[in-house]
């Protein structure tokens, strides 16, 4: 631009794209003028809902909660101080046990269905082991790949479904041997078969693995297939105890065999007799 050229003049001079001056002089921008400018409204941010934290009263009895919140003595006789310390530690251990149990329940709730589906469909075989580039060679190898312990997988695939089938019955703690007896019954006969077998054990007064195995044979709840994963069930040990088997075709009945089995296992015989008489509508006491 030449010195002294008029911007926006009326003599046909080339107009500039700049706005013409207002005649009020230069605009001075200061901190005060900026602060006086009304600020644009800031959209409110949605506040996330607070996560509900369970209180001590939801986790442990009131007595344990009182110990956890009580002040520890900073001075006093050593015997009194150590008693207070031990009480606090014992109470904290009880709290940790409860919280661990709740954590495991959540873990089993979410991971259990996936583990059971992978087991039932054997879809784990389609996974490639990154260390070999080949298909997964075993169930245990796949569990290691996904970070699930065999103990947890065992409970998810066997114990948890059995407990679900026995819901409402007096079960208590299930041992591995009991689960091994009940699991194939669940596979072959469903929850109804498991409940029938367990109820028979309660009626007999013994729900141990050995008793359940005998009852499984007596009630005809033997498995008709085995899991192909490789952890196949051990065959029932041979026994000299006579096994009572019902006729497999009309007209076949060996009374001497029935008497022999009744003498060897009177509890089982009474249980079978009561079940038959109840089905026939007859009084077992007569």
Describe this structure in words.
The protein is mostly helical and 286 residues long. The protein has ten helices and no strands. The chain has helices spanning 31-36, 56-59, 62-69, 78-121, 139-146, 150-165, 176-204, 209-218, 255-264, 266-280. The longest helix is centred in the middle third of the chain and has 44 residues, at 78-121. Mean pLDDT is 75; it is low at 6-10, 39-43 and 225-239.
C-alpha geometry: flat
Radius of gyration: 39 Å
Portion in strands: under 5%
Order of helices and strands: HHHHHHHHHH
What separation lies between the terminal Cα atoms? 128 Å
Oligomeric state, counting identical vs distinct chains: single chain
Total of DSSP H or I helical runs spanning 4+ residues:
10
Give me the count of strands: 0
Instruction: Give the helix/strand class.
Output: mainly alpha
Low-confidence stretches: 6-10, 39-43, 225-239
Return the average pLDDT rounded to an integer: 75
The biggest beta sheet reads: none
Provide the helix percentage. Answer: 40-55%
Topology:
Elements: H1 31-36, H2 56-59, H3 62-69, H4 78-121, H5 139-146, H6 150-165, H7 176-204, H8 209-218, H9 255-264, H10 266-280
Helix pairs in contact: 3-4, 4-6, 6-7, 7-8, 9-10
Keywords:
286 residues; mainly alpha
Concise description?
52% of the residues lie in helices and 0% in strands.
